[in-house]
Amino acid sequence: MLAGVAVVALGAHADVVAASWSSPALSLHGFGTLGVVRSDQDDADVVSNTYLQPNGAGHTRRWDFGVDSKLGGQLNADFGDGWSAVVQVVTKHRYDNSWTPEIEWANVKYQLTPGLSLRGGRTVSPIFMLSDTANVGYANPWVRGPQELYGMVPITNLDGIDLAWNTDIGQATNVFQASFGSNTFDAVDGLRIAGKNSWILSNTLEYSFVAVRVGYLRVDLTFDGNDLDPLTDGLAGLGDSLATAGFPVAGQRAMALARRYDIDDTPVEIFSAGLRLTPGNWLLLAEWARRADAGLIPKTHAGYVTVGYRLRQLQPYVTFAKLDSQTHAPQAIPTGGLPAPQATAADAANSGLAAALQTAAPSQQSLALGLRWDALNAVAVKFEYQHVDLESDSTGRFGNVQPAFQPGGDADLFSVTVDFVF
Asked: CATH number for the domain including 302?
């Protein structure tokens, strides 16, 4: 199954066979990546996701094996009469520096009709075109998905239900998918992220070598337990004290800012679109997404284009990606007429909010040159060089940012991975 996904995703022509151990109703598959990445950035780390990995290559270690390495297993069960189930377990470098295996998928599926199915349990969060294979490096053309886009959403799975409707339209195939659920998980720096009432709708139309996908996500998002809580609680407390002291205008402004930038059951929406072309030996992948602003989360546009060409066992590729976050300076708490202690507190609150808004608004662009080598059956070796340009006043997608970090600037990354399925 995983090998089949890889062939579709890459447009490969080589036959790939994944070994499996089978009983009449069970099949077991595995996948993994052994990777190393080097960064010349001294004051921040390259990570696979800024929410989910605490450190990586750069400041912590010049060369790091934990950014991309992972190991997973998937058990499929067919009960007959349209019933089936799947469990997928993945171990990788996690938010707490552990490699604890976690259940990525665990669901039961019922095939209502040949084209209509319903699943319940823990399923993939199908936000982007390659979300289904995000953990299976072998199924993807790059060393890691472009973080400008794939780093927008840290939620990789949902606990809930989803429905898939597969129909033929002439010689084309159309798949509509609707998912509803929730997920709560721990992230770096003591952050706990909760996504409730998540709706994900997507539609993929495939004809010959062309696939077009559109998607929509809506989720009520809560960030709890990180630096945001003291900021918004401090603004609310300052507003109360200013109003009590006889400064209602400044007090109301502070309380309005606390409500505006808190992330507590805050609705977040993402619209996305993707295109895959695989004519002959060519590969073109392109995706775009837009996220509306919500609380401290800014309005964001992100996208990438990947072009590759297969030469027998080799596939060179190039990827250009861009992330643009738009922040607007908040209406500051007015300090005119405030006594010195209150004015000092208001200035500190204004500065803290401005800094938090800047940190929450990563902007960057990158150019990656890579080569995939299908060295063995079901084994691919990838080499990738990536140059990252940060926008001024931005930390980009780097994690573990140190006090000495200078926003803006650039960085050079070099990565090697060995991806496999079995």
From this structure: 2.40.160.10
